[in-house]
Design brief:
single chain, FAD/NAD(P)-binding domain, 2 domains, six-stranded antiparallel sheet, 20 strands
């Protein structure tokens, strides 16, 4: 099998690299061939879970504001960003049948709010321009030669039949390419196919891999998870379904596999499937909006953010949990003590809040319906006027000694020690990766191996939540594809 350009990985950066390469080659007299090798049965698996299935595919801030949300070398990302800006990306999808809408925080979503439509648009556009996408094809090894690259692959094809068992066909294939683009993603969400293959290929060619760790992941407060250790083998986790007519939640079982042994063992990693404790169950499912959270590392303020928090089966998530997770995870891995302080009333001064609480307390006590009620019930009624009712028991469990006189301070200084984090099994992105010092920023070509390009999450390049990571993946992919195609054109 021969192709001018082979791309390993059919995710966001890989598909966009294919499109960039095909568009560039189609402008030349001799053209060229582009092939994407994707080991999963379908391309774009990780895109499907982005933005809770709605796919926040970019953020339309200008470079000055956008660059503030890049947590690695901004100078490295700049050429790709300016080659394919967020406005360019929005226009690209619109021209290919996918209009978008801009929401709070300059986040761009497909108008349909369906991540599958983003994948369909990418696959449709790539194939329309002549790209061959080969799914179920896992690259096992890569060799370089003066003429290009040889890839040894395993191609698995599964045929499903209605009235008889499915059939699986396994083929050994060799691909030969003049230029090779590695777009295999990182380690996050291994079920999507991102299992670190690209790091192996990069090390083979002498590239340095910066320390890998999960980012945009759940932080686990002390006591949030039960003491029961997760099973080492395949685990089954019950999750909530919709309520039936009796108000009961039917229980389903979802099989979850532990991370592969090849994954790095990280200090502080707590498996997502570890059951929540009684305390955790009191918080799980609640959301705090427009609050402030401050991260402390070894008692020193490290980061303060404003926005929303979600309490999930993993721990602290939502925009705020994700935004502070990178520093928190790194600190925990390096034996530092980590805690967060939540200010649930950031727009109100402490003294003003205290006055408001005492006035509300007086109203609660004087309410005829309060006659004869115990203090604990009245106090929870008071608390329910200040925070979401479903969160009151969790808050009281976390602050057992709170009183009317200390409630204002407790609401503005809800402290939680962080004992760990959810790992790559559900982290949104992988921090660390192939050192960008060894990649040409203007082309994404390796400085160590001519004709080899790296793009997307496999690089040491990660950003905040809010569409920034996908924009970086799309932009670097497009630039890598164009660059490889231009080299093909000059050699023809």
């Amino acid at each position: 099998m021969k192709s001018d350009i082979v791309i390993i990985g059919g995710g966001a950066s890989g598909l966009m690299a294919a499109i960039g390469a095909a568009l560039q080659l189609n402008q030349t007299e001799n053209g060229g061939t582009v092939t994407v090798l994707e080991k999963m049965p379908k391309a774009g698996r990780k895109i499907m879970v982005t933005g809770k299935g709605r796919c926040n595919f970019t953020n339309v801030k200008d470079w000055s504001a956008f660059s503030e949300h890049i947590r690695t070398n901004t100078n490295f990302v700049s050429p790709a960003f300016h080659n394919l800006t967020p406005e360019d990306l929005v226009a690209f999808f619109k021209s290919n049948g996918l209009p978008s809408e801009i929401e709070r925080g300059d986040r761009a979503y497909p108008k349909s709010r369906k991540s599958g439509d983003v994948v369909d648009a990418l696959v449709r556009t790539a194939t329309m321009h002549g790209v061959k996408i080969v799914t179920g094809c896992e690259v096992r090894s890569v060799e370089a030669s003066p003429k290009g690259f040889k890839l040894e692959c395993i191609k698995t094809t599964v045929k499903e039949f209605k009235f008889k068992p499915s059939e699986t066909k396994v083929e050994h294939l060799d691909y030969f390419a003049s230029k090779l683009i590695v777009a295999t993603g990182g380690l996050s969400y291994p079920g999507s196919g991102s299992t670190g293959d690209g790091y192996v290929f990069a090390e083979q060619f002498g590239h340095k891999i910066e320390t890998l760790f999960p980012s945009l992941t759940a932080l686990v407060p002390a006591g949030y998870k039960s003491d029961k250790s997760p099973l080492v083998e395949e685990m089954k986790m019950a999750f909530r379904g919709p309520r039936n007519k009796f108000g009961e939640r039917p229980r389903k079982e979802k099989t979850i596999k532990p991370l592969p042994d090849s994954y790095p063992k990280l200090k502080g990693h707590i498996e997502r499937v570890t059951p929540v404790s009684k305390f955790g169950s009191l918080l799980e499912g609640n959301t705090l909006e427009n609050v402030q959270m401050t991260l402390y590392i070894d008692g020193n303020e490290a980061q303060t953010e404003f926005g929303d928090i979600e309490f999930t089966d993993g721990g602290l998530e939502g925009p705020l949990g994700f935004m502070v997770s990178r520093k928190a995870v790194w600190a925990i891995m390096n034996d530092s003590k980590v805690s967060v302080v939540i200010d649930m009333k950031p727009a109100v001064e402490l003294s003003q809040l205290d006055d408001d609480i005492h006035n509300r307390w007086k109203e609660v006590q004087e309410d005829p319906r309060s006659a004869g009620a115990p203090f604990q019930k009245l106090f929870r009624i008071l608390l329910g006027k200040l925070i979401p009712w479903d969160l009151t028991l969790g808050f009281l469990d976390s602050n057992p000694n709170v009183s009317v006189d200390t409630l204002a301070s407790a609401l503005k200084n809800w402290k939680m020690d962080i004992e760990g984090f959810v790992g790559f099994e559900r982290a949104v992105v992988t921090a660390g990766g192939i050192s960008t010092d060894e990649i040409v920023a203007k082309t994404l070509e390796s400085k160590k191996q001519p004709g080899l390009y790296f793009t997307g999450e496999v690089l040491d390049m990660d950003c905040d939540t809010g569409g920034y990571n996908l924009q970086a993946c799309f932009a670097t992919g497009f630039l890598a594809g164009q660059s490889a195609a231009k080299e093909i054109s000059t050699q023809q």
